[in-house]
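On clarity, I found the account of how folds are encoded harder to follow than it need be. Since the whole study asks how a given chain folds, the encoding of that fold should be made plain. The format is easy to grasp once an entry is in front of the reader. For illustration, here is how one protein appears when written out as sequence plus structure tokens.
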Amino acid sequence: MVLRMSYVLVVLTILSMDHRISQATSRVAFQKPSIAHHFQQWMIKFSRVYSNEPQKQMRLEVFKKNFEFIENFNSKANQSYKLGVNEFTDRTKEEFPATHTGLTRRINVTSSSQAVDNTMSSWNWNVSNIVGQSKDWRMEGAVTPVKQQGQCCKFSGTVYYKQSLQIRKQCSN
């Protein structure tokens, strides 16, 4: 009887431990990774190293703000696209255009160019009866996915050439 009671006690102890372990692991499995964890993974993926701890903390705050914006945008139901984390997620809204969009000075419109605009707008540019109302060139393979092109867009000529070939191929079929 004592042996049987000991056996039952051991079995109940093991079952109790198993239940506690499964509860602990299920809590861990459903925890969302922290922003700091995402930031560390992002730093590894994009080989980002900061010169000092204050710089890293400042970039973490910018990353956090941008990450939360991305998460909020993607959680909305009627979006036709999704945002994602990329190599610029630690940049502010002001930093990115200042360093990655090429020309930074403002170009003033002259009166002669306004005259050209006025002349061209008076022409009848309605060609929808010839080409149709719309054409989604993405579906025809003429538009490539968005990618990093560098600061000087040195590959834009190649992209233009490839797109032109694709469009000509589609038009000749």
About this structure: Residues 2-29 form the longest helix (28 residues). The CA atoms of residues 100 and 151 lie 5 Å apart. Helices lie at 2-29, 35-45, 53-75, 95-100, 111-122, 128-131, 156-172. DSSP finds seven helices and no strands in the chain.
